[in-house]
Amino acid sequence: MRITRHNGRAGVNGVYNPKHNDRNFDIAASEHIDEIMAKKNVYYTWLDGLYTPELMDANEEKSRFVECERIAYGKRYTDHIIAQNERNEKTRHTERNRTVDDLLSNKKTCPEETIYQIGDMDESVPYEVLLSITVEFFEELEKRYGEYYHTLDWALHLDESTPHIHERHVFDCENQYGEICPQQEKALEKMGIPLLHPDKKPGRNNNRKMVFDFMCRELLMDICEEHKLEIERDPIYGGRKYREKMDHIIQSQKEKLSKLEVALQEKEDQIEEANSALNDKVEKLSDVEELLDEMADISYKKACEKVAQVATEKAKEETKKAAIDRVIKFKEWRIAPERKGTDKEKSLIKKILEQVEEKLKAIGDGVPAVIKKVLSEPAVAKVAKEEIKDAVRPSLSKRLSEKKDVVADNNQKNHEIQRTNLVTENSKPKKDNQSL
Predict the structure, then answer these.
(1) DSSP calls for 336-375
(2) CA 155, CA 18: separation in Å to the nearest integer?
(3) Quick check: 23 and 70 in contact, CB under 8 A?
(4) 296, 389 in Cβ contact below 8 A?
(5) CB distance 169 to 151 below 8 Å
(6) Other CB atoms closer than 10 Å to residue 37's CB: what's the count?
(7) Ordered alpha helix ranges (H), 45-119
(8) pLDDT tens for residues 241-278?
(9) Is the pTM value of this prediction over 0.90?
(10) 340 or 212: whose pLDDT is higher?
(11) 412-103-191-226 Cα dihedral, nearest 10 degrees
Protein backbone atom coordinates (compact mmCIF):
# COMPACT_ATOMS: atom_id res chain seq x y z
CA MET A 1 0.00 0.00 0.00
CA ARG A 2 1.26 3.44 -0.86
CA ILE A 3 1.37 6.55 1.34
CA THR A 4 0.47 9.92 -0.15
CA ARG A 5 1.97 12.99 1.48
CA HIS A 6 1.83 16.26 -0.49
CA ASN A 7 2.90 19.74 0.67
CA GLY A 8 1.88 23.12 -0.66
CA ARG A 9 1.07 26.73 0.19
CA ALA A 10 -0.53 28.08 -2.94
CA GLY A 11 -2.18 27.00 -6.16
CA VAL A 12 -3.38 28.68 -9.32
CA ASN A 13 -5.97 30.62 -7.26
CA GLY A 14 -3.51 31.88 -4.65
CA VAL A 15 -2.75 30.60 -1.14
CA TYR A 16 -4.83 27.65 0.00
CA ASN A 17 -8.01 28.54 1.85
CA PRO A 18 -8.67 26.58 5.09
CA LYS A 19 -12.41 26.98 4.47
CA HIS A 20 -12.14 23.93 2.23
CA ASN A 21 -10.83 21.89 5.13
CA ASP A 22 -13.42 22.69 7.82
CA ARG A 23 -16.22 22.74 5.25
CA ASN A 24 -16.95 26.39 5.88
CA PHE A 25 -18.94 26.73 2.66
CA ASP A 26 -22.13 25.43 1.08
CA ILE A 27 -21.27 21.76 0.68
CA ALA A 28 -24.69 21.10 -0.88
CA ALA A 29 -23.36 22.79 -4.00
CA SER A 30 -20.38 20.39 -4.20
CA GLU A 31 -21.29 17.17 -6.00
CA HIS A 32 -18.18 15.29 -4.78
CA ILE A 33 -19.01 15.80 -1.07
CA ASP A 34 -21.41 13.51 0.80
CA GLU A 35 -23.46 15.72 3.16
CA ILE A 36 -24.33 12.83 5.49
CA MET A 37 -20.71 11.65 5.81
CA ALA A 38 -19.56 15.27 6.29
CA LYS A 39 -21.12 15.14 9.77
CA LYS A 40 -18.69 12.34 10.66
CA ASN A 41 -15.58 14.32 9.65
CA VAL A 42 -12.99 14.80 12.40
CA TYR A 43 -11.55 18.24 13.02
CA TYR A 44 -8.75 19.62 15.20
CA THR A 45 -7.61 23.17 16.00
CA TRP A 46 -4.97 24.35 18.43
CA LEU A 47 -7.70 26.45 20.04
CA ASP A 48 -10.51 23.90 20.48
CA GLY A 49 -8.78 20.53 20.26
CA LEU A 50 -10.45 17.48 18.66
CA TYR A 51 -14.15 17.44 17.69
CA THR A 52 -16.71 16.14 15.18
CA PRO A 53 -19.89 17.87 13.98
CA GLU A 54 -21.88 14.71 14.75
CA LEU A 55 -20.90 14.67 18.43
CA MET A 56 -21.12 18.40 19.05
CA ASP A 57 -23.91 19.78 21.21
CA ALA A 58 -26.51 21.71 19.21
CA ASN A 59 -25.60 24.90 21.09
CA GLU A 60 -21.87 24.30 21.01
CA GLU A 61 -19.79 26.52 18.76
CA LYS A 62 -16.26 25.86 17.50
CA SER A 63 -13.93 28.39 15.96
CA ARG A 64 -13.48 28.15 12.22
CA PHE A 65 -10.04 27.29 10.85
CA VAL A 66 -9.65 30.79 9.39
CA GLU A 67 -10.34 32.37 12.76
CA CYS A 68 -8.02 29.98 14.63
CA GLU A 69 -5.16 30.68 12.25
CA ARG A 70 -5.65 34.43 12.53
CA ILE A 71 -5.64 34.22 16.34
CA ALA A 72 -2.51 32.05 16.30
CA TYR A 73 -0.66 34.45 14.01
CA GLY A 74 -1.82 37.40 16.11
CA LYS A 75 -0.53 35.83 19.34
CA ARG A 76 2.81 34.78 17.88
CA TYR A 77 3.70 37.52 15.39
CA THR A 78 2.06 40.81 16.47
CA ASP A 79 5.23 42.01 18.25
CA HIS A 80 7.24 41.33 15.10
CA ILE A 81 4.70 43.10 12.87
CA ILE A 82 4.64 46.22 15.07
CA ALA A 83 8.44 46.38 15.33
CA GLN A 84 8.95 45.84 11.59
CA ASN A 85 6.37 48.51 10.72
CA GLU A 86 8.18 50.93 13.03
CA ARG A 87 11.43 50.19 11.20
CA ASN A 88 9.64 50.82 7.92
CA GLU A 89 8.42 54.17 9.26
CA LYS A 90 11.99 55.19 10.14
CA THR A 91 13.27 54.24 6.68
CA ARG A 92 10.25 55.89 5.03
CA HIS A 93 9.07 52.65 3.42
CA THR A 94 5.58 52.40 4.87
CA GLU A 95 4.42 50.63 1.69
CA ARG A 96 6.17 47.59 3.20
CA ASN A 97 4.02 47.62 6.33
CA ARG A 98 2.22 44.36 7.04
CA THR A 99 -0.72 43.07 9.10
CA VAL A 100 -1.61 39.62 10.40
CA ASP A 101 -3.84 39.11 7.36
CA ASP A 102 -0.95 40.05 5.08
CA LEU A 103 1.21 37.30 6.61
CA LEU A 104 -1.63 34.80 6.20
CA SER A 105 -2.12 35.70 2.53
CA ASN A 106 1.55 35.76 1.53
CA LYS A 107 2.82 32.46 0.11
CA LYS A 108 6.15 32.88 1.92
CA THR A 109 4.63 33.34 5.38
CA CYS A 110 1.23 31.62 5.18
CA PRO A 111 0.69 28.17 6.75
CA GLU A 112 1.91 25.17 4.79
CA GLU A 113 -0.73 22.54 4.04
CA THR A 114 -0.01 18.80 3.88
CA ILE A 115 -2.38 16.12 2.62
CA TYR A 116 -2.11 12.59 4.07
CA GLN A 117 -3.67 9.50 2.55
CA ILE A 118 -2.99 5.77 2.87
CA GLY A 119 -4.06 3.79 -0.18
CA ASP A 120 -6.37 4.94 -2.95
CA MET A 121 -9.95 4.57 -4.19
CA ASP A 122 -9.44 0.85 -4.83
CA GLU A 123 -7.76 0.03 -1.54
CA SER A 124 -7.42 2.13 1.59
CA VAL A 125 -7.22 1.63 5.34
CA PRO A 126 -10.20 2.25 7.67
CA TYR A 127 -10.41 5.87 8.66
CA GLU A 128 -9.79 4.95 12.33
CA VAL A 129 -6.38 3.56 11.32
CA LEU A 130 -5.53 6.64 9.28
CA LEU A 131 -6.60 8.84 12.20
CA SER A 132 -4.57 6.88 14.74
CA ILE A 133 -1.42 6.89 12.58
CA THR A 134 -1.54 10.56 11.69
CA VAL A 135 -2.31 11.71 15.24
CA GLU A 136 0.67 9.69 16.46
CA PHE A 137 2.75 11.25 13.69
CA PHE A 138 1.64 14.81 14.58
CA GLU A 139 2.42 14.22 18.26
CA GLU A 140 5.90 12.95 17.38
CA LEU A 141 6.59 16.02 15.25
CA GLU A 142 5.43 18.24 18.12
CA LYS A 143 7.68 16.36 20.53
CA ARG A 144 10.75 16.69 18.30
CA TYR A 145 10.30 20.13 16.78
CA GLY A 146 7.54 21.85 18.76
CA GLU A 147 9.65 24.93 19.43
CA TYR A 148 9.78 25.77 15.73
CA TYR A 149 7.00 23.68 14.14
CA HIS A 150 3.38 24.40 15.07
CA THR A 151 0.30 22.49 13.96
CA LEU A 152 -2.57 24.96 13.59
CA ASP A 153 -5.42 22.71 12.46
CA TRP A 154 -6.26 19.55 10.55
CA ALA A 155 -9.33 17.82 9.15
CA LEU A 156 -10.04 14.15 8.45
CA HIS A 157 -12.44 14.04 5.48
CA LEU A 158 -14.72 11.01 5.26
CA ASP A 159 -17.14 12.70 2.87
CA GLU A 160 -15.12 12.17 -0.31
CA SER A 161 -14.06 9.09 -2.28
CA THR A 162 -11.08 8.19 -0.05
CA PRO A 163 -10.41 9.12 3.61
CA HIS A 164 -7.63 11.71 3.80
CA ILE A 165 -6.34 14.46 6.09
CA HIS A 166 -5.56 18.13 5.40
CA GLU A 167 -3.10 19.44 8.01
CA ARG A 168 -1.83 23.04 8.24
CA HIS A 169 1.25 24.18 10.13
CA VAL A 170 3.77 27.02 10.31
CA PHE A 171 7.53 27.19 10.89
CA ASP A 172 8.92 30.08 12.92
CA CYS A 173 11.92 31.23 14.96
CA GLU A 174 13.65 34.40 16.15
CA ASN A 175 14.93 36.84 13.55
CA GLN A 176 17.99 39.08 13.85
CA TYR A 177 16.04 41.46 16.11
CA GLY A 178 14.98 38.73 18.54
CA GLU A 179 11.36 38.70 17.26
CA ILE A 180 9.42 35.52 16.53
CA CYS A 181 8.30 35.49 12.90
CA PRO A 182 7.39 32.89 10.24
CA GLN A 183 10.55 31.86 8.35
CA GLN A 184 10.74 28.27 7.19
CA GLU A 185 14.36 27.73 6.17
CA LYS A 186 15.80 29.49 9.24
CA ALA A 187 13.50 27.47 11.53
CA LEU A 188 14.57 24.22 9.86
CA GLU A 189 18.19 25.19 10.47
CA LYS A 190 17.38 25.77 14.15
CA MET A 191 15.67 22.35 14.20
CA GLY A 192 18.98 20.78 13.16
CA ILE A 193 17.84 19.78 9.66
CA PRO A 194 20.88 19.68 7.31
CA LEU A 195 21.06 20.67 3.65
CA LEU A 196 20.55 17.90 1.11
CA HIS A 197 24.13 18.54 -0.05
CA PRO A 198 25.92 20.25 2.88
CA ASP A 199 29.03 20.91 0.78
CA LYS A 200 27.05 22.85 -1.86
CA LYS A 201 25.36 26.22 -1.95
CA PRO A 202 21.71 26.29 -0.75
CA GLY A 203 19.13 26.64 -3.49
CA ARG A 204 15.87 25.36 -4.92
CA ASN A 205 17.36 21.89 -5.41
CA ASN A 206 19.44 21.92 -2.25
CA ASN A 207 17.52 23.02 0.83
CA ARG A 208 16.57 21.82 4.28
CA LYS A 209 12.88 21.46 3.45
CA MET A 210 13.68 18.62 1.04
CA VAL A 211 15.49 16.76 3.83
CA PHE A 212 12.72 17.50 6.35
CA ASP A 213 10.04 16.13 3.98
CA PHE A 214 12.09 12.98 3.45
CA MET A 215 12.49 12.54 7.21
CA CYS A 216 8.73 13.05 7.73
CA ARG A 217 7.91 10.47 5.08
CA GLU A 218 10.28 7.95 6.67
CA LEU A 219 8.82 8.61 10.13
CA LEU A 220 5.27 8.23 8.81
CA MET A 221 6.11 4.94 7.12
CA ASP A 222 7.77 3.66 10.32
CA ILE A 223 4.59 4.38 12.27
CA CYS A 224 2.50 2.66 9.57
CA GLU A 225 4.64 -0.45 9.84
CA GLU A 226 4.29 -0.39 13.62
CA HIS A 227 0.55 -0.60 12.93
CA LYS A 228 1.21 -3.75 10.84
CA LEU A 229 0.67 -2.09 7.48
CA GLU A 230 2.68 -3.15 4.45
CA ILE A 231 3.96 0.07 2.90
CA GLU A 232 5.75 0.60 -0.41
CA ARG A 233 8.72 2.67 0.70
CA ASP A 234 10.27 3.46 -2.67
CA PRO A 235 8.24 5.75 -4.94
CA ILE A 236 7.92 4.25 -8.42
CA TYR A 237 6.93 6.46 -11.35
CA GLY A 238 6.02 5.43 -14.91
CA GLY A 239 5.02 1.87 -14.02
CA ARG A 240 2.18 -0.18 -15.43
CA LYS A 241 -0.42 0.77 -12.89
CA TYR A 242 -2.57 3.81 -13.61
CA ARG A 243 -2.19 5.03 -10.02
CA GLU A 244 1.58 5.13 -10.34
CA LYS A 245 1.27 6.94 -13.64
CA MET A 246 -0.94 9.55 -11.99
CA ASP A 247 1.62 9.92 -9.20
CA HIS A 248 4.23 10.63 -11.86
CA ILE A 249 1.98 13.19 -13.57
CA ILE A 250 1.27 14.93 -10.28
CA GLN A 251 4.97 15.05 -9.44
CA SER A 252 5.76 16.46 -12.88
CA GLN A 253 3.11 19.14 -12.51
CA LYS A 254 4.41 20.03 -9.04
CA GLU A 255 7.88 20.51 -10.50
CA LYS A 256 6.49 22.78 -13.23
CA LEU A 257 4.54 24.74 -10.63
CA SER A 258 7.65 25.07 -8.49
CA LYS A 259 9.64 26.43 -11.44
CA LEU A 260 6.84 28.86 -12.26
CA GLU A 261 6.66 30.11 -8.68
CA VAL A 262 10.44 30.65 -8.60
CA ALA A 263 10.30 32.59 -11.88
CA LEU A 264 7.35 34.65 -10.63
CA GLN A 265 9.18 35.40 -7.40
CA GLU A 266 12.22 36.61 -9.33
CA LYS A 267 10.00 38.93 -11.36
CA GLU A 268 8.23 40.14 -8.22
CA ASP A 269 11.60 40.89 -6.60
CA GLN A 270 12.66 42.89 -9.66
CA ILE A 271 9.38 44.81 -9.67
CA GLU A 272 9.66 45.46 -5.93
CA GLU A 273 13.17 46.88 -6.41
CA ALA A 274 11.92 49.13 -9.22
CA ASN A 275 8.92 50.19 -7.12
CA SER A 276 11.19 50.96 -4.20
CA ALA A 277 13.37 53.20 -6.37
CA LEU A 278 10.32 55.02 -7.75
CA ASN A 279 8.82 55.40 -4.29
CA ASP A 280 12.08 56.89 -3.02
CA LYS A 281 11.91 59.50 -5.75
CA VAL A 282 8.26 60.29 -5.04
CA GLU A 283 8.92 60.47 -1.29
CA LYS A 284 11.61 63.07 -1.89
CA LEU A 285 8.94 65.21 -3.52
CA SER A 286 6.48 64.45 -0.72
CA ASP A 287 8.03 66.84 1.74
CA VAL A 288 5.57 69.56 0.73
CA GLU A 289 6.63 72.12 3.32
CA GLU A 290 10.28 71.96 2.34
CA LEU A 291 9.37 72.27 -1.32
CA LEU A 292 6.99 75.15 -0.57
CA ASP A 293 9.70 77.03 1.32
CA GLU A 294 12.01 76.75 -1.66
CA MET A 295 9.29 77.72 -4.13
CA ALA A 296 8.12 80.67 -2.04
CA ASP A 297 11.67 81.99 -1.66
CA ILE A 298 12.37 81.81 -5.39
CA SER A 299 8.94 83.19 -6.31
CA TYR A 300 9.24 86.12 -3.91
CA LYS A 301 12.70 87.09 -5.16
CA LYS A 302 11.48 87.00 -8.75
CA ALA A 303 8.40 89.00 -7.76
CA CYS A 304 10.50 91.67 -6.03
CA GLU A 305 12.66 92.09 -9.09
CA LYS A 306 9.62 92.38 -11.32
CA VAL A 307 7.80 94.78 -9.01
CA ALA A 308 10.90 96.98 -8.75
CA GLN A 309 11.31 96.99 -12.52
CA VAL A 310 7.68 97.82 -13.23
CA ALA A 311 7.52 100.38 -10.42
CA THR A 312 10.69 102.04 -11.72
CA GLU A 313 9.42 102.43 -15.24
CA LYS A 314 6.06 103.71 -14.01
CA ALA A 315 7.64 106.10 -11.52
CA LYS A 316 10.01 107.48 -14.13
CA GLU A 317 7.29 108.15 -16.64
CA GLU A 318 4.78 109.68 -14.20
CA THR A 319 7.36 111.75 -12.30
CA LYS A 320 9.06 113.06 -15.42
CA LYS A 321 5.87 113.96 -17.13
CA ALA A 322 4.38 115.87 -14.18
CA ALA A 323 7.60 117.70 -13.19
CA ILE A 324 8.73 118.57 -16.71
CA ASP A 325 5.27 119.88 -17.61
CA ARG A 326 5.34 122.17 -14.58
CA VAL A 327 8.86 123.44 -15.39
CA ILE A 328 7.98 124.09 -19.02
CA LYS A 329 4.84 125.95 -18.05
CA PHE A 330 6.72 127.99 -15.48
CA LYS A 331 9.52 128.77 -17.99
CA GLU A 332 7.06 129.89 -20.64
CA TRP A 333 5.20 132.01 -18.14
CA ARG A 334 8.37 133.63 -16.71
CA ILE A 335 10.03 134.57 -19.99
CA ALA A 336 6.87 135.73 -21.67
CA PRO A 337 7.14 139.31 -23.16
CA GLU A 338 4.61 140.69 -20.76
CA ARG A 339 6.72 139.65 -17.74
CA LYS A 340 9.03 142.23 -16.23
CA GLY A 341 12.77 141.86 -16.56
CA THR A 342 15.59 142.46 -18.97
CA ASP A 343 16.45 140.14 -21.79
CA LYS A 344 19.61 139.15 -19.90
CA GLU A 345 17.60 138.21 -16.81
CA LYS A 346 15.07 136.25 -18.85
CA SER A 347 17.89 134.46 -20.67
CA LEU A 348 19.45 133.45 -17.36
CA ILE A 349 16.10 132.21 -15.99
CA LYS A 350 15.51 130.22 -19.18
CA LYS A 351 18.95 128.64 -18.91
CA ILE A 352 18.40 127.67 -15.25
CA LEU A 353 14.99 126.17 -15.95
CA GLU A 354 16.37 124.19 -18.89
CA GLN A 355 19.02 122.78 -16.53
CA VAL A 356 16.25 121.83 -14.10
CA GLU A 357 14.41 120.17 -16.98
CA GLU A 358 17.51 118.08 -17.76
CA LYS A 359 17.81 117.05 -14.13
CA LEU A 360 14.21 115.93 -14.12
CA LYS A 361 14.85 113.66 -17.09
CA ALA A 362 17.22 111.59 -14.90
CA ILE A 363 14.80 111.30 -12.01
CA GLY A 364 13.72 107.76 -10.96
CA ASP A 365 17.11 105.98 -11.36
CA GLY A 366 17.28 105.37 -7.60
CA VAL A 367 13.74 104.03 -7.25
CA PRO A 368 14.55 100.28 -7.84
CA ALA A 369 17.07 100.20 -5.03
CA VAL A 370 14.61 101.81 -2.63
CA ILE A 371 11.82 99.41 -3.59
CA LYS A 372 14.06 96.34 -3.33
CA LYS A 373 15.30 97.44 0.05
CA VAL A 374 11.75 97.77 1.40
CA LEU A 375 10.60 94.45 -0.03
CA SER A 376 13.69 92.66 1.28
CA GLU A 377 13.07 93.56 4.88
CA PRO A 378 12.63 90.25 6.87
CA ALA A 379 9.23 91.10 8.29
CA VAL A 380 7.82 92.10 4.90
CA ALA A 381 9.37 89.09 3.13
CA LYS A 382 8.11 86.59 5.75
CA VAL A 383 4.50 87.73 5.48
CA ALA A 384 4.61 87.68 1.69
CA LYS A 385 6.21 84.21 1.52
CA GLU A 386 3.60 82.72 3.88
CA GLU A 387 0.86 84.13 1.68
CA ILE A 388 2.50 82.54 -1.37
CA LYS A 389 2.76 79.18 0.41
CA ASP A 390 -0.88 79.29 1.53
CA ALA A 391 -1.97 79.97 -2.03
CA VAL A 392 0.19 77.25 -3.58
CA ARG A 393 -0.06 74.47 -0.95
CA PRO A 394 -3.49 72.95 -1.89
CA SER A 395 -2.67 72.78 -5.58
CA LEU A 396 0.82 71.38 -4.99
CA SER A 397 -0.38 68.76 -2.51
CA LYS A 398 -3.09 67.66 -4.92
CA ARG A 399 -0.65 67.35 -7.82
CA LEU A 400 1.87 65.39 -5.74
CA SER A 401 -0.87 63.05 -4.53
CA GLU A 402 -2.07 62.53 -8.09
CA LYS A 403 1.51 61.86 -9.18
CA LYS A 404 1.98 59.23 -6.47
CA ASP A 405 -1.32 57.60 -7.46
CA VAL A 406 -0.22 57.48 -11.09
CA VAL A 407 3.12 55.93 -10.12
CA ALA A 408 1.41 53.36 -7.89
CA ASP A 409 -1.13 52.54 -10.61
CA ASN A 410 1.62 52.11 -13.20
CA ASN A 411 3.57 49.89 -10.82
CA GLN A 412 0.51 47.68 -10.28
CA LYS A 413 -0.18 47.45 -14.01
CA ASN A 414 3.45 46.54 -14.71
CA HIS A 415 3.31 43.93 -11.97
CA GLU A 416 0.16 42.33 -13.43
CA ILE A 417 1.59 42.41 -16.97
CA GLN A 418 4.78 40.67 -15.79
CA ARG A 419 2.78 37.99 -14.01
CA THR A 420 0.43 37.47 -16.97
CA ASN A 421 3.29 37.23 -19.46
CA LEU A 422 5.20 34.79 -17.30
CA VAL A 423 2.17 32.56 -16.71
CA THR A 424 1.41 32.57 -20.44
CA GLU A 425 4.95 31.40 -21.21
CA ASN A 426 4.64 28.42 -18.90
CA SER A 427 2.15 25.58 -19.03
CA LYS A 428 -0.34 25.53 -16.17
CA PRO A 429 -0.51 22.45 -13.91
CA LYS A 430 -3.50 20.27 -14.66
CA LYS A 431 -3.82 18.98 -11.09
CA ASP A 432 -3.25 21.06 -7.98
CA ASN A 433 -2.09 19.79 -4.61
CA GLN A 434 -5.54 20.05 -3.02
CA SER A 435 -7.11 17.57 -5.50
CA LEU A 436 -7.36 13.91 -4.56
Answers:
(1) STTS-S-HHHHHHHHHHHHHHHHHHHTTTTTHHHHHHHHH
(2) 10
(3) no
(4) yes
(5) yes
(6) 14
(7) 65-90, 100-105
(8) 434 444 554 565 566 667 777 777 777 777 777 767 66
(9) no
(10) 212
(11) -110
